[in-house]
Write a sequence for this structure.
């Protein structure tokens, strides 16, 4: 039956075409061009495929395994728009250059903040694989073997596959990080994190649809709709932090103000040790959907297993790509490393 | 070359328009169709009243989760929210009832024999029955849409005559109506798929209840399959997995991807159902 064949065709994953033919490029050239690339204006759809193995937490749907998507637009000059749709609602984040607007359709409120506080940049980094991937590349290339592994088609665009494999001395849970780099604009289109012992990506963040070029300027403005509540953001709200790759980038964002992480090690086995922090804040998912007021009350023992050692005792939370120990005295150590590296870092 | 009109070759079967007309009268005169349309019309009214009462009582607490929460003070969401809600079970039920009556019902009451023996091509018979089902689907969606708009404007009140999208932008009445039209067409497309499958089942049995139970049971099974994470590879094949796309018309800029994909999926289901129904009816014994 034609209909059944049609269903089969529809079910085929998009962009699974043959690898495009591209002129060869060395890994060094590719890395250099990525780090200096100017993204310019673009609009597209980003999909996050999360198989980290974190349990579902209240108010943080993106942390649990599953897909989530975002629509992003940027004018290349610091103004941008991110829309995070759910089945029956949407969060819209707009930076118009002067003001940062965060709209939540669930409670019909708009939070505003001056854009120079920087949340807009962080916000666009959240949903923008370009920034997340470039940052990861910059941090990791010193301690990695970098090579170009063929080509791929991402969001209908030909791309080079850049593969970063940890050097043999790095003690990490990760097997490799793959970056699909746009052949024309030299912009990362997709970031794939593969963990040891699994062929399926633990985390994949990439464009499913992307268009370079000037975007409708209307997109970079926001007018609070009639009937909406407009609230200037309190310190913490509307600033949902940085990419989930905190341990990777070695720059955990979304931390409460005044808490400085100590970085132990470098490259792949970086461990961030945070002390004196507000645990709820440290656990806060960067892009949780819940209301900004009131953190979810998290029962740590439900998330991990108790561990103890010369450094004290605490709870170990492990996922496919990262582990974290939250000690009973309020310290947190996290990284893309096995438990042993964490305990060493805590012992220092 | 010219075509000669031969008086001897006059059509022996009734013209299609007359067939469709008689099917239409037959479908619309059935009390159950009218009752069903009336019940569907109640959906937006009930939501409108509920939302307004809640909004008056808790004036400080706006909105809430889900599309229904978005209706408060933003009435033009109501028709879309009602259609999305009804698409879960009530609209498919209305369509399936019509399809079950169309063939299995007639077989049960013994009137199908007359139709099969009448000088009407079997293919025309299927087209006629499918037309009747499609009319019920269209009417059902239109009733909800029209009553929804009226209830929105009268009971809930629109935000300055505009629609506040889920994305937080405002669009005018004309565009809001355009988007409502999109969701109506899309929903009729999804219901056509349900109707085609129901019609195929209807041609296989003489018991209308079997059709109703099979289709509604199938929809529930689809829902269960969607909820099982280990079976997510199955999602592209399930008709219901695209049914949240109806809410996409409330986003701005409007994403067409989900609507188009689910429409194509519905088209495939329609092709399978229509093919099966035609195949069966062409060979069915009187």
């Amino acid at each position: 039956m034609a209909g059944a064949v049609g269903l089969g065709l529809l079910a085929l994953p998009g962009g699974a075409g043959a690898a495009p033919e591209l002129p060869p490029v060395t890994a060094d050239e590719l890395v250099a061009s990525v780090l200096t690339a100017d993204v310019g204006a673009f609009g597209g759809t980003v999909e996050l495929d999360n198989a980290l193995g974190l349990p579902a937490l209240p108010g943080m749907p993106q942390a649990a395994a599953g897909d989530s998507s975002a629509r992003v637009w940027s004018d290349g000059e610091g103004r941008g728009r991110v829309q995070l749709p759910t089945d029956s609602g949407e969060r819209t984040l707009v930076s118009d250059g002067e003001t940062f607007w965060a709209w939540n359709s669930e409670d019909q409120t708009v939070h505003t903040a001056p854009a120079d506080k920087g949340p807009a940049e962080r916000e666009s980094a959240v949903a923008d694989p370009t920034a997340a991937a470039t940052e990861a590349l910059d941090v990791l290339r010193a301690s990695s073997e970098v090579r170009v592994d063929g080509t791929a088609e991402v969001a209908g665009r030909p791309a080079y596959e850049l593969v970063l494999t940890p050097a043999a001395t790095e003690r990490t849970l990760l097997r490799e990080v793959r970056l699909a780099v746009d052949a024309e604009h030299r912009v990362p289109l997709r970031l794939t994190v593969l963990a040891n012992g699994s062929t399926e990506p633990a985390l994949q963040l990439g464009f499913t649809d992307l268009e370079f070029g000037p975007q409708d300027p209307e997109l970079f403005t926001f007018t609070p709709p009639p009937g909406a509540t407009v609230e200037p953001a309190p310190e913490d709200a509307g600033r949902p932090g940085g990419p989930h790759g905190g341990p990777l980038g070695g720059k955990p964002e979304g931390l409460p103000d005044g808490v400085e992480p100590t970085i132990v090690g470098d490259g792949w086995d970086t461990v961030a040790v945070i002390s004196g922090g507000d645990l709820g804040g440290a656990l806060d998912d960067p892009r949780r959907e819940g209301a900004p007021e009131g953190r979810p009350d998290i029962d740590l023992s439900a998330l991990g297993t108790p561990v103890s050692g010369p450094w004290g005792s605490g709870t170990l939370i492990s996922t496919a790509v990262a582990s974290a120990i939250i000690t009973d005295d309020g310290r947190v150590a996290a990284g893309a490393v096995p438990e042993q590296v964490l305990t060493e870092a805590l012992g220092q | 070359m010219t075509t000669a009109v031969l008086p001897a070759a006059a059509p022996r079967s009734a013209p299609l328009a007359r067939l469709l007309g008689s099917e239409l009268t037959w479908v619309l005169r059935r009390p159950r169709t009218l009752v069903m349309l009336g019940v569907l019309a109640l959906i937006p009214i009930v939501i409108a009243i509920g939302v307004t009462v809640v909004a008056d009582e808790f004036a400080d607490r706006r909105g809430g989760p889900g599309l229904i929460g978005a209706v408060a003070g933003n009435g033009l969401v109501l028709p879309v929210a009602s259609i999305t809600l009804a698409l879960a079970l009530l609209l498919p039920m209305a369509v399936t009832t019509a399809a079950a009556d169309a063939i299995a019902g007639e077989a049960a009451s013994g009137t199908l024999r007359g139709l099969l023996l009448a000088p009407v091509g079997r293919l025309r018979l299927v087209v006629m029955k499918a037309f009747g089902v499609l009319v019920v689907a269209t009417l059902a969606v239109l009733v909800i849409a029209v009553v929804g708009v009226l209830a929105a404007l009268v009971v809930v009140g629109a935000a300055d005559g505009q629609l506040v999208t889920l994305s937080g932008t405002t669009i005018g009445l004309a565009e809001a109506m355009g988007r409502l039209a999109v969701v109506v067409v899309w929903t009729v497309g999804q219901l056509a798929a349900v109707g085609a499958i129901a019609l195929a089942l209807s041609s296989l049995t003489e018991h209308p209840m079997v059709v109703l139970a099979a289709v509604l049971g199938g929809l529930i099974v689809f829902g269960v399959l969607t909820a099982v994470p280990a079976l997510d590879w199955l999602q592209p094949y399930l008709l219901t997995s695209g049914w949240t796309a109806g809410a996409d018309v409330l986003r701005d800029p409007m994403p067409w991807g989900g609507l188009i994909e689910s429409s194509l999926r519905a088209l495939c289901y329609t092709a399978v159902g229509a093919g099966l129904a035609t195949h069966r009816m062409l060979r069915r014994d009187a």
In short: The CA atoms of residues 35 and 233 of chain B lie 39 Å apart. The interface with chain A takes residues 62-67, 69-70, 73-74, 159-160, 162, 164, 166-170, 229, 236-237, 244, 247, 251, 253, 255, 257, 261, 264-265, 267-273, 275-276 of chain B (CB under 8 Å). Chain B has one domain: 15-283. Chain B has a mean pLDDT of 86.
